[in-house]
Design a protein that fits this description.
The structure is a single chain. With 102 residues, the protein is of the alpha+beta class. It is 19% helix and 32% strand. It has helices spanning 36-44, 92-101; strands at 3-6, 10-13, 18-22, 52-58, 66-72, 78-83. Strand 4 (52-58) and strand 5 (66-72) form a beta hairpin. The protein is globular, with a radius of gyration of 15 Å. The termini are far apart.
C-alpha cells in the first residue's frame, strides 16, 4: 500500500487521501477579459504526463486539508509533499519535475 506523508499529520495510508488533480494551477488575472477558448483552457485543460507530476491531494479521512504532492505517475513514488502556499521543497523531485517538463 502506498504511504503518503501528510504535511500536518505525517505518514498515512493512501486510502485516507483523495487526489484533486493537477496542482499549482493559478487563476488567471483579469479572468473577465479572457476569451471563451482561454477560459476553457484554464478550466478544463490539464497535463497528463508520464513521469513526475505536480498534483494536489486532500487528507479526506484525516485533517481534511489540501496539500501538494510531487508524484511519479509511472512508479507511483512520491518525491515530496508540502503545504499549499509554501515553496516546493528542494528535493530530488524538483529536478525530476524539471526533466519531465523539458
Amino acid at each position: 500500500m502506498l504511504q503518503i506523508d501528510c504535511p500536518w499529520c505525517g505518514p498515512r495510508a493512501e486510502s485516507e487521501f483523495s487526489c484533486g488533480g493537477e496542482g499549482g494551477i493559478v487563476r488567471p488575472p483579469n479572468s473577465e477579459s479572457l476569451t471563451d477558448a482561454e477560459w476553457g483552457d484554464y478550466v478544463f485543460m490539464r497535463k497528463n504526463p508520464k513521469g513526475v507530476h505536480h498534483e494536489q491531494w486532500r487528507h479526506a479521512s484525516g485533517c481534511g486539508r489540501w496539500f501538494n504532492v510531487l508524484r511519479d505517475t509511472v512508479s507511483y513514488r512520491i518525491h515530496a509533499t508540502w503545504r499549499i502556499g509554501e515553496a516546493m521543497p528542494d528535493a530530488e523531485g524538483q529536478a525530476a519535475a524539471s526533466r519531465s517538463n523539458a
